[in-house]
Amino acid sequence: MSASVLDLSLVPALGEPRPAAVPEVHETVLPSGLRLVVVPRRGAPLVELRLRVPFAATPRSAATHVARASVLIGAMMLGAGPHDQLEIAQLLQAQGAELSVSANADRLHVHTALLPQGLDAVLGVLAELLTEPTYPAHPVEAERSRVVERLRIARSQPGVIARSALASRLYGSHPYGQQMPDADLVAGVTPAALRKLHRDRVLPAGSTLILVGMVDPAAAADAVARALGGWTAEGRAVSAPPVPDLVPGPVRVVDRPGAVQSNIRLGGPAPDRTDPEMHAVMLASTIYGGYFSSRLVENIRERRGYTYSPRSSVEHLQSGSSFTVDADVATAVTAPALLETWYELGRIALTPVTQAELDSARQYLLGSLALRTATHAGLASTLSSLYGVGLTAEWLTDHQRALAGVGVDDIVAAARRWLAPAGLATVVVGDAGEIADRLGALGPVEVTTADVPPQP
Fold this sequence. Notes:
This protein is of the alpha+beta class. The chain is about 45% helix and about 20% strand. The chain has 16 helices and 14 strands. The chain has helices at about 60-75, 85-95, 120-130, 135-155, 160-170, 185, 190-200, 215-230, 280-290, 295-305, 335-350, 355-370, 375-390, 395-405, 410-420, 430-440, and strands at about 25-30, 35-40, 45-55, 80, 85, 100-105, 105-115, 210-215, 250-255, 260-270, 310-315, 320-330, 425-430, 445-450. The strands form three sheets. Strands 1-2-8-3-7-6 form a six-stranded mixed β-sheet, with helices on both faces. It has a six-stranded mixed β-sheet with strand order 11-12-10-13-9-14, sandwiched between helices. The longest helix has 18 residues, at about 135-155. The chain is globular.
């Protein structure tokens, strides 16, 4: 049997993207300062809830804040008002809900999906968690021990080491540089410290509650006012300060003796969501390494076999955005892989991309956003991110229009400003004895030691 070859000329061309529809949005601001955003939507008989609370650390308190926050996100669910952890879980599960709490450098996030008829009940539980958290001693101690153990495991993982090393390189002593808490500080977190952190920082002012799905806007507004009207803690939301300017410097090698693989990470500043150049940078990043048809994938995966899944991305935090590149490669090809990574960055910054590359990347970004916002959950999470940085649902249409207006010359200009290798910091986690000398042929290298806890 002879193998058949796909005739790509038979594959129909992609059509023009359909205009992005702005969802029906109803906004209310409670006297406490809590912003409510309700988006009624047909489809699955569910309501997606997202509560975003500003939760950034100050430079002086970053290490302590991150340590306490790492325990608080699990301990919030351990008790509230008259209910213990089991009773809270039972109340939520009766409405098809299971609240999750997370935190990053900018916000505390509470999210769940629930049955529409359970909105009042779930909001009642949420109100207790926000206004009457107990942080009981023995359960907090167990949660604290769990976090310490999780940190011990995470700090032995090369990907975690690489992410932390790049953040430290990009942000230094800024709170964004504090990717993981110190285990000793976590071990010292007390229930009293959690109660104080909650009282001082879990505030309605500046917070946003998103409801998306089978919900009546007026009824939802009344339900939120009844349930969360008592969440009236005083205080001001805290935002992270502006990020420092990056000084790229030498390649930083984080030594992991005996490692059979190197974790290459590059990063630098990027325009924020409101910057007119942001869309050109997103497209440049996509063409460079943002999806499977990108130049970096074609080069160091398909052509050279150096890595399985290299990628680049633009990431947004409230006080600064970043362009990053990730590639995990075998130790023996670390220097050649970094050379090709730099080469592709230089090529996109100095020579025009093709119109076909631009059209393909644009279709990918538009299609990805359409898929992401097609579900209640995806739209709720997207709106939570947008409102968290002062944008609204109108951004969805503005984004599509802005992407359509980017031309080939805009890509080159944006890449030269934001993606040029000379403006990026480079971190490599691997066996310094095997890779540092060869990396030195590409430029200055400094070697540091990985912060890996001893094995028990």
